[in-house]
Design a protein that fits this description.
- By secondary structure, the protein is an alpha+beta fold.
- It has helices at residues 13-18, 21-26, 54-60, 64-73; strands at 2-9, 32-37, 44-51, 81-84.
- A four-stranded antiparallel sheet has the order 2-3-1-4.
Length: 86
């Protein structure tokens, strides 16, 4: 199992937190995600993503489904930062 830390900004933190899109798109790929918010900068959020394969995640993030999910959740794609547990 691999663990990722993913940080990004969103348009509306409350909408992002309530959204079921993460489970809808990550679940079928065998991924789970825990959500976090930055109390000092309210539009910055983060995820701890557990998955079997980083390549699967990276390939998925290039799909139209990923782009649509990010748009629905108000994710600002240019702010995404991903760290991989060594």
């Amino acid at each position: 199992m691999t663990t990722l830390l993913v940080f990004h900004e969103v348009d509306d933190v409350d909408h992002w937190l309530r959204s079921t899109k993460r489970e809808e798109v990550f679940g079928p790929l065998g991924m789970t995600a825990r959500t976090f918010v930055d109390p000092a900068k309210t539009n910055r959020v983060g995820l701890i993503v557990e998955l079997a394969d980083v390549d699967t995640f990276q390939k998925f993030m290039q799909t139209d489904a990923a782009a649509e999910a990010m748009k629905f959740d108000g994710v600002r794609p240019d702010t995404v930062v991903m760290l991989v547990e060594p």
